[in-house]
C-alpha cells in the first residue's frame, strides 16, 4: 500500500476497537489520507487504472439511476495546454498526470430514462418500472413552454400536500434541474477522487477556472455544466501545502 495512505495523523480514531473490520480500516485509510494535492510527480497514471477509477466513479448514488454526468479526460497536448490556462495556471493543473473535467448534464434525463428501459437487466421490464420512467420521471422534469407546466405542477403539488401530506417537490425551473444534475455529478466526483487514492494516486478538485472558456474548448453546450476540474497524479513531496484540520464535529452534527 502507498506509504502516504497512513500519513494523516491529525485525526485520532474515535472508535477503534479490536473488532473493527479490515474493510473499515482500509476505507478510513483512504479517506483520511486523501488530500487536495497541488503538485504532482512525473509518474503517469496508467490508462487501465484511470479506467477503473472512472468505473468506480460511475457507481456513485444518483437519482433514479439517470446518471447525469460526463467525464472529459484532457490528454491532447494542445487541449491540455489551453485547459491549464483556463484553470488559471494552477500548479494542480500544470503538474497533473491527468486533467479531467467533471460535467453535469441537464438535457439527457429523458434519453437516459428510455435507455434504462432498453437496457434494464430484468426482462421483461416490470410495468411499475415502465410507468416510473415513462410517467413519473417525465412529470418530474417537464417544464413546458414559458414554464406553463411548471406552474401547473406547482398548483397540483400544493393541493396534494394539503390533502395527502408530504410530497417530493418536482423540478419547477431550469435551476432546479441544474441543481439536481450537479448534486448527482458531485457524488461521482468524490467517488473518483477516493478511487484514485485507493490506487495510490491523488487529486485536487478545482473550482477556480474559466467555465465559458473551458466549455468552448470542450465544445460543450448550455446544457453542460462543469462542476469542477480535477487534476490527478502521484503526490509530490511538496504537493500538500498545509496541515489538515477540520472544525469540531459537534459544530455541524445535530440530533433532533
UniProtKB/TrEMBL annotation:
Annotated source species: Psychrobacter pacificensis
Domain Nitroreductase: 32-233
Family assignment from sequence similarity: Belongs to the nitroreductase family.
CDD domains: MhqN-like (cd02137)
Entry annotated with the keyword Oxidoreductase: yes
SUPFAM superfamilies documented for this protein: FMN-dependent nitroreductase-like
Alphabetized UniProt keyword annotations: Oxidoreductase
Span list, region Disordered: 1-20
Protein name: Nitroreductase
